[in-house]
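Researcher: Let's continue the batch. This sequence belongs to NADH:ubiquinone reductase (non-electrogenic), and it's 192 residues. Same format as the previous ones, please.
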Amino acid sequence: TEAEKRPERLTIVVGGAGFTGIEFLGELGNRIPELCREYDIDRQQVRLICVEAAPSVLPGFDPELVDYAVNYLEGKGVEFKIGTAVKECTPDGIICGKDDQTEEIKAGTVVWAAGVRGNPIIEESGFENMRGRVKVKPDLRVEGHDDIFVIGDCSLIINEETERPYPPTAQISMQQGETCANNLAALIHGKE
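Model: Same format as before. Here are the structure tokens for NADH:ubiquinone reductase (non-electrogenic):
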């Protein structure tokens, strides 16, 4: 069909260069050569484009690891547009841009892996927060509120080594769940 002949059908845009977007691009970058062989598609026709509004890839991660990940993915053919927001998804792809400059990227597939933020109720709670995430102490309690714990995507914990927030990942949320349970049990038993 005519649609199958359009070159942009083999363009995949991933919105977001956080943990989820980068992990997805890594898997896709590894799998694309196999799929191209299997379906007799010229690898040069396939484009993988990552669009990220933030000024860097993998916020919260060590800069050395970020450089490694970017170089690895670029070696797999991933193109990066950093500091560039997805302004609109269209039936033909996306419109993205910086400041008042926009660009249309025609794509057969758009994957949204951006915008992790806490529950909107957090923003209305009165707690100091950043994008719906409340800064908590290492024991997961809110500063000045010893009876309130915040965990998961709603919590903001600073990594003391990097002085940057830990990313909101499932792995960290699971660790926080265990830590919070232990801390609550200790409080119930009168321990700090």
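Researcher: Any comment?
Model: The radius of gyration is 21 Å.
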